[in-house]
Amino acid sequence: MGKVEEFEELRPLLFSIAYRILGSVGEAEDAVQETWLRYDASRTRPVSAKAFLSATVTRIAIDVLRSARVRREEYVGPWLPEPLLDDPYQDPARAAELADSVSMAALLLLERLSPLERSVFVLREVFAFDFDEIAAAVGRSEAACRQLLVRARRHMHEGRPRFEADRQDRQELARRFFEALTQGDVDGLQSLLSADVQLVGDGGGKAPQLARAVTGAENVARLLAAVYPLMARIDITFEPHEVNGQPGALFRDRDGKILHILALDTLDGQIQTIRAVINPDKLSHLGPVADAWAVDQEVKRTRRTQ
Fold it and tell me: Are both 33 and 87 inside the same structural domain?
């Protein structure tokens, strides 16, 4: 097998590692491309292409994350990961770990860790790498990696998200939610929301966004029921889709351009958190992006004419 074929076979794994470390599709894709350039430029073939490439993409991701953390501290409003609609890496033996680790809730928890803790946790807990491979990837001893993992596990377990176990139950709850949303049914929405539900929006200062998270079933239901029927009147449509392994939907303007995504965390038959990503920079990998400011103005004009 040649270098190109070897790399392409491992590309899904490399992207999945980088995305979980970075929480950004664009940065993960760049890290994978840089990994290829280094692999292509190397004069010797490693004993294990998987070990070499995984270590390389991890080191690149760590460097990117260190600079990204500074930018995220200056971010306007709440920061959410770039939405991922489909994880390219599949491993039936670790399906549960892969699905849970890519959720927005889990990625936000990972944000609390240092770049090294985050990388060690991802390689060990998600992808089951051996400690000698992890040590080579992060440039620390095996003993140091074990300590990093202990700290990472402690932080992650303290706030580990819980989700509806049954996929069919999740999808049915999401179906009822979006049906009530399009109808502007306040009572219907409220019945599906947990008492302390949160609605969080990420516009990054580049699109209309909530000034702060909205909390409580009644507050969230009333806000959603007031806004989304108006959006439907100006031909905003949505298509249900898993977002980061959880129920969600992709919203489009009348021209089919992407306006935003919603991702739902569900547990015990209720929606616990609703996350909206509307920052155009975080949606461009999904296709052409709508002008959210223009849509916002049209919604306001529609409201005034009611």
Answer: yes
Q: Return the residue matching tokens 């294990």.
A: 48
- Per 3-state DSSP, the chain is made up of helix, strand and coil in percentages (nearest 5) of 60, 15, 30
Q: Does 219 lie in the same domain as 104? A: no
Q: What is d(CA 78, CA 212) in angstroms, rounded to the nearest whole number? A: 8
pLDDT bucket at 110, cuts 50 / 70 / 90 = very high
- Is 267 strand, coil or helix? strand
Pair (145, 176) in one structural domain: no
Please state the pTM of the whole predicted model: 0.93
Which residue range forms the structural domain that includes residue 17?
Answer: 3-158
Domain boundary among 158, 178, 200: 158
At which of 99, 125, 158 does a domain end?
Answer: 158
d(CA 40, CA 234): 50
Q: 146 and 175 in one domain?
A: no
Residues contacting 77, CB < 8 A, separation 6+: 201, 202, 203, 204, 205, 209, 210, 211
CB burial of residue 111 (10 Å; 0-12, 13-18, 19+): middle
pLDDT per residue over 197-208, tens digit each? 999 999 999 999
Tokens (6 digits) for 28: 């993960």
- Per-residue pLDDT of 258-299, as tens digits, reads 999 999 999 889 999 999 999 999 999 999 999 999 999 999
